[in-house]
Amino acid sequence: MTQDEITLIQRSFSRIFAQKARFGALFYERFFALNPEARAMFQTSITRQSEMLIEALALVVRGMRTDGALPPKALQMAARHGRYGVTPDHYAQMGEALMDTLAEVLGDAFDTETREAWQRAYGRLSEIMIAAAAEPAPDAMAANRNTS
Ligand code: HEM
């Protein structure tokens, strides 16, 4: 990511953060419209879930670097998603829901440059999350050692 892309994302995210409850509700509504079956994967209330999502996005967005590295906390969160049964298709659907919700909440501020920057950043984040989920969990590694 370039520094300009990072600046566009951080600026637009601060507008989102200022209306995070609305953003979260719209986002999950869109995501579950794309994949109604995914609703059953969440035990947490959607209000609480959307707060956690926004906090996690804030961590990622505020810590964005031009080399694309994620903060360690975000990597741990990514690895947990493998255990939640999240698939690459889910990330694609979530990306679609994210882009549509950004467009709705940001309105005219979601211009072409901002959209492209978000698309690249989400693409990169989801690649990292998918890769982190594919790594064996520490307990799975222990199990391998015991049986080999
Ligand atoms: C941008 C990508 C995503 C971010 C930032 C994110 C963030 C979070 C956070 C912060 C949590 C709280 C628990 C934890 O930290 O482990 C969580 C839980 C969870 N996420 Fe995600 N998530 C993302 C993508 C997805 C996708 C694509 C799915 C697909 C269905 C998903 C499904 C879940 C589920 C099932 C839980 C556990 C809910 C529960 O126990 O009730 N997440 N997510």
From TrEMBL:
**InterPro entries linked:** Globin (IPR000971), Globin-like_sf (IPR009050), Globin/Proto (IPR012292)
What GO terms describe the biological role, i.e. biological process, of this protein? cellular response to nitrosative stress; nitric oxide catabolic process
Q: Does the keyword Transport apply?
A: yes
Keyword Heme annotated: yes
The UniProt keyword set, sorted, is: Heme, Iron, Metal-binding, Oxygen transport, Transport
Check the record and name the Pfam families matching this protein: Globin
Q: Which GO terms describe its molecular function?
A: FAD binding; heme binding; metal ion binding; nitric oxide dioxygenase NAD(P)H activity; oxygen binding; oxygen carrier activity
Q: Which Gene3D superfamilies match?
A: Globins
| Residues of the Globin domain | 1-134
- By its UniProt entry, which SUPFAM superfamilies does this protein fall under? Globin-like
UniProt superkingdom: Bacteria
What is the similarity comment for this entry?
Belongs to the globin family.
Q: What is this protein called?
A: Putative flavohemoglobin
Originating species: Dinoroseobacter shibae (strain DSM 16493 / NCIMB 14021 / DFL 12)
